[in-house]
Amino acid sequence: MAETIAFTLNDKPVRVTTDGQKPLLWVLRTDFGLTGTKPSCGQAHCGTCTVLVDNKAVRSCVYPVRNASGREVRTIEGLAQNGELHPLQKAFVAHDALQCGYCTPGMILTAYSLLLQNPEPTREEIVQGLDRNLCRCGAHTRIIDAIQAAAQAMKGGKVQ
Amino acid sequence: MSNHEYPQIDFTDFQLDLDLSRRDLLKALGGGIVIFFCVGDGSILEAQRRSLPSDFNAFLRIGADGRVTCFTGKIEQGQGNATALAQMLAEEIDMPLDAVDMVMGDTALCPWDGGTWGSTSIRQFGPSLRAAAAEARHVLLELAAEQLNVPQARLAIENGLIYDREQKDRCVTCGALAQGKTIARRAGEKPAVKNPSEFKVMCKPCPQRNAVDKVTGKALYAGDVRLPGMLYARLLRPPAHGAKLQNVDTSAAEKMEGVTVVREGDLVAVLHADPDQANQALSRVRAEFTPSPSQLDNRTIFDHLVKNAGSGRTVAQGGDLEEGRQMAALVVEQTYLDGYKAHAAMETHTALAHVEGDKVTVWLATQTPFPAQDQLAKALGFDLGNVRVITPFVGGGFGGKGSANTQAIEAARLSRATGKPVQVCWTREEEFFFDAFRPAAVVTIRSGLTRDGKPAFWDYSVYAAGERGAAHFYDIPHHRTTSFGGAAHPFATGPWRAPANNTNCFARESQIDLMAAQARMDPLEFRLKNLKDQRAIRVLEAAAERFGWKPAPTPSGRGLGVAVGTDVGTWVAEIAEVQVDKRTGRVQVKRVVCAQDMGLCVNPQGAAIQVEGCITMGLGYALTEDIHFRNGMILDRNFDTYELPRFSAVPKIETVLLDRKDQPAHGGGEPAIILVGAVVANAIHDATGASLLQLPMTPERVRKAITAIV
Fold it and tell me: Does B79 touch chain A (CB under 8 A)?
């Protein structure tokens, strides 16, 4: 049944009238045209569709849009502020921490959520934090390096 | 890679009615200075015969804005060819790297290309591009000499500016040279390219192009393209390969608001402006299928492949096997098995098709935009010139997005049926079902050593994998390598990153280790002693040096493995260190050193990334990835049971690229993956004494192999 759901999307208040059970992934991609959030497995196994809800990484392919009601949703498009790339984005570019780039938004947002909880993670903690995100190209070692570098760059500061 | 390993695409059925004249093409390109050139031999010109004049198959353009554009039918799928090709162009034309644009994989703008596979971008297209860029530089200097009224010898070109060495303010930018005119030249036979000592851009580490678009979500993949009024399609699929549709009831789906149902023979689809509604509509379609006639499964497949093999083809032979057997004091015979592997790119097969009258435009996730153009024209009955394939960013291919382009045809048929743009984006389940898997394969090897530990004979038979990498390169006096195909697979198979070579290297290098063990020799020393190829020897030595290899006969208990191989002209050696939990059979790869001789390496950073990607991806086929199936059904349908390598599986990876600027460039996207199965198997053997004869080396198989020793 269609219902109207209001939430904050990349710092702006938005409303959408749709089936509340519809996965957030499709709402973002279809209703809001934010295609940086990628579909891949549809069952929360791979993490390419990861977005932030109240600063926590969620898998939008299985997250009913109704659950976002009243919350803050952030996608990869909303990470750079005032045209300035986020330290994680800069670090992914600087470390060439991507190949095809399809898993990259999910990797960055998962790392973002990790660094909020643990601003100075060890290498092992990064591995654990990202272990449920899949990358087929094999950019893993550089992704770990990039996250470590971003954590360093943000030292003493906030993630945002 | 030879063409026969890929599906043949039949061009002969086409009547060509579009013959773009050079003038029309120049108009379409928007003027400037255009350099035409030719890549490869005449057969490529023949293949592209329909859309362009026939004396070139590639071109680049210097626009009035001072930017230089390379048009190529190659595509970028994350492997970094766009970056390395741009480096080659910038180097030879002496323009800044950031003034280079790459237009790739658009059939309306780019010259014909057979597809992006077999690591051909740099080693085959690259040299022609360099030559054309050198020619372009020459043309620029000629024009500048005329305009500045300065002898050409006095001119210098730097960062897109041409100036008089004796009076630097007499200068002109490359963009201004055409002066609004269109100047077309054909690259000469052999314009001189730079010596490696002159390189400023090539052979220097260069970060990947488009990385900023990829970290901000701006990069558009086929599924991200939006057109007004577009519909999302879901298709009815059989439960098993070989199952036939008997009856279907779409009435419940038809009752849903906004749902369109299309039935064209076996094509049954539901479409909606909202992909989630399309999903729901499909769940309301009721259908019955016949059972699959296939009775094979992932255990019985190996017997099937051997029993139904056709006559073999001798790939290599020398000496006399019988004589070799007489010489041998120690003989070992082993059979190696390899299961089916999925490509499992993170982006599934996706297409957006827009049919307008007798024309169609398709945004397509593909490695083969031009073959896709042919396939679409044939499927729709459209003139080839009315079919445009645009390749946006591709979310990984690994050989899997190069064959049938089925999703393009599905989207185009549905667009024609509905009159609207239609997106077909396969679900992960469809991706696993319709993937053209890396084939399951069997290798049997009989080999013998003389009393003093020298190889006497080698009798190698490979079934179903293919020939790439089958022929050995060791100094063995009596040998024969035979490749058998012929047995039907129960579903589609196709090229998977370094086709056949992964299976062949696993078998060959495992057997070489067994021979080293029989000879009670260090496995590295055994290889070095029995190799003649200097490039093979050098990569082994380089890997050993970086690793800090200390000789010991295997199994030494240390968990170290070594392997060497060659692919797409490149030689590669790897050394791995593993930890084996003998109780659970779990294997953790701790460290991999890879030494690679790829000839001239255009982008050392890109090459290192490919090595890392190859080793990481290779851990999957080595340890976890295996397609389970039964009676035509694919039992692994998602990443819960089909296990890709995760962060926690990735070892420390060290890459040594041999400096071979004096040599031609060889392939870089595939070689380092070919040894991963072998080097891990050898390291497990070194740790435990157990021989792992089947990929993947799951904990269960490792445990069983360890138990079998006692």
Answer: yes
The domain spans of chain A are 2-78, 87-154
For the entire predicted model, the pTM comes to 0.94
Chain centroid to Cα B152, Å, comes to 43
Helical packing angle, B604-619 and A140-153, nearest 10°: 120
Burial B488-519 (b: 16+ CB within 10 A, else e): ebbbbbbbbbbbbbbbbbbbbbbbbbbbbbbb
ipTM: 0.98
Full DSSP string of B486-521: -PPPSS-B---SSTTHHHHHHHHHHHHHHHHHHTT-
User: Around Cβ B247, how many Cβ atoms within 10 Å?
Assistant: 8
Give the list of residues 6+ apart from residue B87 with CB closer than 8 angstroms, or none: B97, B201, B202, B204, B206, B602, B603
Query: How many independent structural domains does chain B possess?
Result: 3
In a domain? residue B432: no
Taking phi over 0 as left and psi of -120 to 50 as alpha, with beta for the rest, B33 belongs to beta
What residue numbers bound the domain in which B138 lies? 22-216
d(CA B468, CA A108): 38
Sheet holding B167-173, edge to edge: B155-158, B161-164, B167-173
Distance from CA of residue B393 to its chain's centroid?
15
Cα–Cα distance between B659 and B531 in angstroms, integer?
21
Which residue from B78, B226, B275 is facing A101, i.e. has the nearest CB?
B78
Establish if A134 touches chain B: CB-CB under 8 angstroms: yes
Which parts of chain B register pLDDT below 70?
1-30, 39-58, 187-191, 710
Residues B519 and B500: their CA atoms lie apart, in Å, by: 29
CB B613 within 8 Å of CB B670: no
**Position of tokens 């100036």?**
B163
Which chain B positions have a beta carbon within 8 Å of A38's beta carbon? 221, 223, 346-347, 395
Per-residue pLDDT reduced to its tens digit, B11-66: 222 222 234 555 666 666 667 888 777 766 555 555 554 455 555 666 788 888 88
Contact check, Cβ <8 Å, A140/B647: yes
Length of chain A, in residues: 160
A92: nearest CB among B215, B605, B652:
B215
Q: Do A142 and B224 touch (CB under 8 A)?
A: no
* Domain co-membership, B116 together with B159: yes
Residue range A87-154, CATH number: 1.10.150.120
**B residues 305..364 contacting A (CB < 8 A):** 344-348
Interface of A with B in 64-103 (CB under 8 A): 75-77, 79-80, 85, 89, 92-94, 96, 98-103
User: In B, which residues are within 8 Å of A36 by CB distance?
Assistant: 216-218
The tokens describing B92, both together, are 């030879």
